[in-house]
Amino acid sequence: MFKRMVTAAVDKDLIKKNPCRGFVLKNDNMTLQKVILLREEIQQLVATHFEGEKGDIHQAFIFGLYTGVRWCDTSQLTYRNVDYTTKTLRFQQQKTKDHSSRSWVIVPLNDTLIRLIGEPSDDDFDERIFKLPHYNICNLYLRKWIKEAGIKKKITWHCARHSFAVNVLTKGANIKTVSSLLGHTSIKMTERMTE
């Protein structure tokens, strides 16, 4: 994209010489591999408890592993987003809400996820489900939790989303279903995420 912009600037005589001419950038797909947690590692992580653990961060990350919901959305979820009757979560994605017709996502919830979410105190449905600190603090804490679990991978919060997608596909879901659950506008986005 940058090279196209520079070429356009040369064509319109905004600059005299194209500084990009002669440079070739090669895309190495192997360097962009996503780090994911396999089902066994997720079970290992869930079973790991230690002194000073933060319950909300644990629950929110586990929630992400089983739903694929981004941190920015998880941190904003309220009990109003949960329909306990139909066991679904409905929310508008923060990342795409102003520029995508597919920004609303509906995620089915099983009984385990419903228990994980719990219910609002004092019937306050505007209460946030997970009381999370800043994203960077959550990632720092996550590193400690991963280390305590004995998992030797560099895991960030966003890895939960990738782990969800890969694990659901591995269990036999089709790519269109996974794409819909993740709120992607195209299957190509999901394919890139799971490569």
Write the layout of secondary structure elements.
Elements: H1 2-11, H2 39-47, H3 55-67, H4 71-74, E1 82-83, E2 88-92, E3 104-108, H5 111-117, H6 135-148, H7 159-170, H8 175-182, H9 187-194
Antiparallel strand pairs: 1-2, 2-3
Please characterize this protein's 3D structure.
The chain has 195 residues and is mostly helical. Helix content is 44%, strand content 6%. It contains nine helices and three strands. The protein has helices at residues 2-11, 39-47, 55-67, 71-74, 111-117, 135-148, 159-170, 175-182, 187-194, and strands spanning 82-83, 88-92, 104-108. A three-stranded antiparallel beta sheet has the order 1-2-3. Strand 1 (82-83) and strand 2 (88-92) form a beta hairpin. Helix 3 packs across helix 7 (159-170). The two termini are 23 Å apart.
